[in-house]
Every structure is written in structure tokens, then in C-alpha cells.
Amino acid sequence: MEDEEERSEVCALLYSNRSAAAFALGKYTAAISDAEKSIAMRPEWAKAVAMEPNDPHVRVSCERARIMARNEEMGLRVIQLLPGRDIALKPKGLHPIRSKIFEFAVGMQNYIYLVVDSDTRKCIVVDACWDVDGILAVIEREQLLLAAAAITHGHFDHTGGIPPAPFSSLRIRVTGVGELKRRLPHLPLLVHPLDMPEVAASNPQLKPQHFTPTPNGFTFRLGQRTEVKFMHTPGHTPGSQCLLVNECRLFSGDTLFPGSCGRVDLKGGSMADMVESLQTRLSAVADATIVYPGHEYGGEWTSIGREKKRGFLRPVGTAGSAQDKWGRLDDGPCR
Ligand SMILES: [Fe+2]
């Protein structure tokens, strides 16, 4: 009975969050339908919305609404795409390989972002992977102009191309930045120089001249009001980078997640670099900054302030080695 109660609460929460996401994406019919389902399961939440938003789940939606309103004020739109929800949807007809790739994409829970300047309608796609057709369809539907593709780091699930072993022998190719570049040859491909070899390894058609290197501090403008600044944050990979938009929205790739950080035990990972990136570089970003992570691990967004209180930006002091600092930090999950 208790399990059932819990399941119903989780479902109601999922519907409530999906409703808010649909609302943010301008899918109002879907937003209303999900909100109705949520309220049918938890009628008290509707009351909380109408009165004081005491329920933590409703508070999340209210906070989200505030973030969206602030984005709108500064002429910014953030479109967060999740495989299985927005893209990489079950293909029509018989596409056994594509279906498998999409199933895999749903399991990987990568977020792909469109960062849009509302004045010019220009946008940057961040970590275009898994379903280039789906991503381009959203760009077309929203009548946006794709100005650049940025990669937070060179891992296959953020770039596409040849999957890692043992799947590499199957001649399967996942659409990603290589495919985007083939279709749009003049599109700048914004990559940190240290991760270019890894991107090129899974996308051998990409040559050095196809990349636009983004060293720390590199900026890209989408319009008069929208500036994207690239921050080098090594640790997960040598060339990991975060995109800081208008000094208050951070696209953190696999460097920072709500309550955790990216793995440091994969090829090219460095615990010492990760500690430095988190404790020095990202901790210097303003607390009110909203963080959009590279995967759906622990939530759709967080903030720098929240991660300083209870995440991997908690100050751990300057004493001791990087290992000591990591030890003080690492009592939470790492993805
Ligand atoms: Fe990664």
C-alpha cells in the first residue's frame, strides 16, 4: 500500500515536471494535459499552486517559471531536449538499427540544448547527438537560425559518430556533429583544442580545419544581448568546457550535475583537474547562475548557489593534496 502511494506520488511528480517542461517549450496542450493528470493524482497540489506553494514539487515548478521569466527578460530561450521525450522518438516503420540507437539514447539520458537569442532567432546547439533529424526538426519548427554547434567534451554520447568498442565493429554510426557538419559545411564547430582528437577519432571525416578551437575565455555572440563565454573545466576529459551565457546560465556538460560531478576515472580524466575546475573555476561563477547539466542525472537544472551548499561546489578548504580535497568532497554519487 505504501509502495502504491509512493508510486502515485512519483507519477504525479513526473507529470507535474513534464507539464512545466512542455509549458517552457510552448507545448501548451501537452502542458495542460500533464498538469491535469498530476492534479488528478494529487489534488492537494492544485490547492498549493493556487495558494502558497508549500509543496516542494510545486515549488520546483514555480522556480522553473521564474527562471523562464528571467530568460525571457534577457531575450534568451533555452530549449532542453531529452531523447525519448523530445527527440529520438520511436521511428515510424521498420528501422531496426535506428530503433536500437534511439533505445540506447533514452538509456543514456543526454541533454541536448538549443541556446537561442530571441531578438535574432540565432541559436547554438550544445552536444548535438543521437538524432540530428530530430534536432533540426525542432530548429525548423521553432523557426531558428543555427549559428554554431558547441561540444562540451569529446565523449561519444555528446558528439556521435562511431560508437566505442564492442559496438565499433558493427559499422553503426550515430548521427551527431559529423553529420551536422556534412549537412551544414559552414557551421562553426566549437570544441576545446584538447578534446579535438577524441571528437575526430569517433568522427574521422572531421579534419582539424573543420573545428573552431575554443580556448578558455573564448566568446561567441548570438546577438546584441546574448554572449556565450567558454570556460575550460578539465577533469572529466582534458578539454571539457562549460558555456556561460550572459554570466548567469551555465551549460555544464559532464563537469557538474545536481549533487554530483562527472566521472574522473575514464580515459583522459583527472581527479586533480576536476577538483581545480569545481573548487576554483566554477565556484567563482555567481551563485544565482542556473546550471543546465549534460545528462538527466538528478534533475533538469540546478544552480551554482545550491551546489555550493550541498553539491560538489561545497568549499573543502585549501589544505592538503588534490586527493585529500577529493576525499572531503566525494561522499556523493559521481557520474
Ligand atoms: Fe562524458
Walk me through what this model shows.
By secondary structure, this protein is α/β, with parallel strands linked by helices. It folds into two domains: 1-61; 74-329, Metallo-beta-lactamase, Chain A (4-Layer Sandwich), CATH 3.60.15. Helix content is 39%, strand content 17%. It contains twelve helices and 14 strands. The chain has helices at residues 2-24, 28-41, 43-50, 56-73, 96-108, 132-141, 156-159, 177-183, 196-202, 271-281, 304-310, 322-329, and strands at 76-81, 112-117, 122-126, 145-150, 189-191, 211-213, 219-221, 227-232, 241-245, 249-253, 256-257, 260-261, 290-293, 302-303. The strands form three sheets. The protein has a six-stranded mixed sheet. Strands 7-8-9-10-13-14 form a six-stranded mixed sheet. Strands 11-12 form a two-stranded antiparallel ribbon. Helix 1 (2-24) packs antiparallel against helix 2, helix 1 (2-24) packs parallel to helix 4 and helix 10 (271-281) crosses helix 12 (322-329). Bound molecules: fe (ii) ion. Residues 153, 155, 236, 254, 262 line the site of fe (ii) ion.
